[in-house]
Amino acid sequence: MLEIYKVATNLTLGSVVSTYTTTSNLDQSLFDTISCGSKSSNPAHSLDEIRFGASYEAVIPGQSGQQASLAISDEQMWQSSFGSADLSDPSADLDGDGRSNGNERVWGLGPTNASSIQPIETILDPLAGIFRYTRRDPSLTGLTYTVWTSANLTAWTEDADATQPPSEPNENGVQTVEVTLSPERIGVPSLFVQVRASN
Ligand SMILES: [Ca+2]
Ligand SMILES: [Ca+2]
Asked: Would you kindly state where each structural domain of the chain is located, as residue ranges?
């Protein structure tokens, strides 16, 4: 069976516009018999070429200049995992929990769940210098996460030697990171910690 699809504007397959069933092998002679309406009579039936390939990429190869328009951003990937929820504005706050949609993506939170608001999974153990936080897998976002400490919430210095081994990301691309501060940051009278995400 041969199905002809309408190509959607983003070059993904759209709806089926024609279906042919044949018991013979598919070859050029079959395609010579296909007639399609012109674009002027029915835009859905505009056909300018037929391509075969084992995969979508084989049929529509990425070309310089075209690649960018075919690439799907991480924001789009992330948004699509929440169905029809309108998360197109990263500065909006769909679930009204005080965290913007974009902020919820960075910290692996649920943008449609107002009770999903806290990326700190385990609070700081001040003696061991260990805490855990959640984030979206940096290999998806391209972000860098750094650890900062302060004695007074005013002056912050980066703890570049803090270790941050992440867990395997879950099916939503969210991982838990266990931070261990460097030894000289621990055992002080006052200690605050921060994790910053930056491009
Ligand atoms: Ca929110
Ligand atoms: Ca939320």
From this structure: 2-70, 74-106, 120-198
Do 82 and 94 touch, CB atoms closer than 8 A? no
Q: What is the DSSP letter of 163?
A: B
Q: Tell how far the Cα of 125 is from the centroid of ligand 1, in angstroms.
A: 28
State if pTM tops 0.70.
Answer: no
Mean pLDDT on 2-17: 61
From the candidate CATH numbers 1.20.120, 2.160.20, 3.30.160, 2.60.40, the one assigned to the domain spanning 120-198 = 2.60.40
Which residues keep their CB under 5 angstroms from ion ligand 2? Answer: 95, 97, 109-110, 113, 116
